[in-house]
Design goal:
globular, 22% strand, two-stranded antiparallel sheet, 11 strands, 7-stranded mixed β-sheet, Rossmann fold
Length: 293
Amino acid sequence: MSALSLALTIALASGSPGEACDPLPGWETVASEARGKYLVLGESHGTVEAPAATAEYICAVAEDGPVLLAIEFSSPDDDGFQRAWAKPYDEFRAALFAEVSDWGTRQDGVASLAMLEMLERLHALKEAGRDIDIVAFNGANGDAQRAAFAGLPGQEPHEAAQAANIREASQARDYAHIVVLVGGFHAEKLPAVLGQTPTRPMANLLAPANRVVSLVMHSDGGENWGCQLEVGADFDPTKPVTSDMVSCKAHPAGPSRPPMERGFHLNDDTKPQRYDGVFALGKISASPPPTND
């Protein structure tokens, strides 16, 4: 065990009442490898388990110094997130709903109850003395950024904006740990092809490969909340998809392969790969949108 891992384990065991952390097994190895870098967690949206695992990992590493959590919400909403984050705990939930319209309305699994509970958990830790910041990074944050990336192919303008917003936030302070929770494609470190267009995902554009530790979600199957075309929908690829063609609900999710024990697993292979490992969650369950009550 490294000196950092030992120190984190001791700190975790001696935490204050009400602040005990329950990170996935193997978190110490990931924390040691990712310290001072970008840890990108590529999730399938709409599960209970991915945001919960993220919260407990941050709970643990926050003993080691300041932490930044980057979340895949619209970057123009970041000011609203910051205003809510500055509120006392008993006002935080109401402030989120007041400041960010996605809560209670967005149905695709991103603005889920589990995501809200993750933020509430981390806000409570912040109020108890942990040094935790958040940033909403998704998409261009204004016309200037949109114009700067307009010449990139396919989806790259979106990926480049994500990366730029995370970098800017991470440079505001000397963070010990930077954690990015994002959809699995954006977490890929190698160029990919979307349709017929070569595309560099966010994690490829974020920083040199040795400064990014990217883990993809693994599960034993179950359900996740998301939006899919209704069975039998009259889909015409030349026409827009309408709301009556889409079903937003808990959908079955098949198991990842090969089977893996619950926990963090880093790859042994040193060759460039799409991901540096996985975070295995076991069986997953769907998390619907929250209500403001």
